[in-house]
Amino acid sequence: MIMKTLPSRFKPWIYRRLLSLGASRSWCIHPAVHRLPFGLALKTSARETSINETAALRFLEASKTVNLNFPFLVDSTTDGTITYMLSTYIDGDCACEVMEGFSSQDWRRLELDLRGQLTSLHIQTSSHHHNICSAAGGIIDDPRMSWVAEGALELTTTQDFFAQVWLGLDFPWNRDTIRPAIQPLVDRPVPVSLCHGDVYPRNIIFPGGVEAWRAGKTRLCLIDWEYSGWMPTPWEALKATFIEAELDSEWQIVICHALPEFGEYLDADWLWRSKSRMMII
């Protein structure tokens, strides 16, 4: 790819020109994503989030992680304010646009596909010694616990991590109610692995279209790795469901079936979200 051979100082100008050209040719498919010719996508974002996604994709490519579909990183550069990330474009249907017409067989296929790919990711990257950090190696910056980045908190153990996930257990109204059920999970050591950190329908593409996926010709592809990081592995399930408002929502059920080993953590998270009187802002 020619972009990799160009001096870095020229790249932001080239990408800005592509964005300008795309504005007149209807290449923009999202405020931050342009679909370019030759099966490519150009994504722009704040420097920190794009650097994190770039780091995750580079790691996955270098590690030859099997049984996992993700976009191929072509190039990434920054002008100091905006980061430009060039990757392969995953042409297909987004899960959020087609799930309304899913049959029971489709839901089951989705659960199995997610389970196979996420389990492969977690097993192949699992460690009891890796630092808890973003994919780029920095402090975790995630909307589920935004106070960690705001306070520049370094979480050195899984106990530190879950103490931030489930705040307020020592408050008087929680001490004798929800804390006895949640604290054992906070204290339990678990492996750290690379987590996507935003497994949600908008970040799932069925390459070639949902009909090809139904026919078993393709597997789903996970896109948008901005919130990926080296996290305690149950985090994948917690983050994938944290905006669900009902225990029996379709997506809550999908994640429970795709990642059944984290059922205790999902139950604890629901208990905390519904009873702790703590607000995520």
UniProtKB/TrEMBL annotation:
Pfam families: APH
Occurrences of domain Aminoglycoside phosphotransferase (ranges): 173-251
Name of the molecule in the record: Aminoglycoside phosphotransferase domain-containing protein
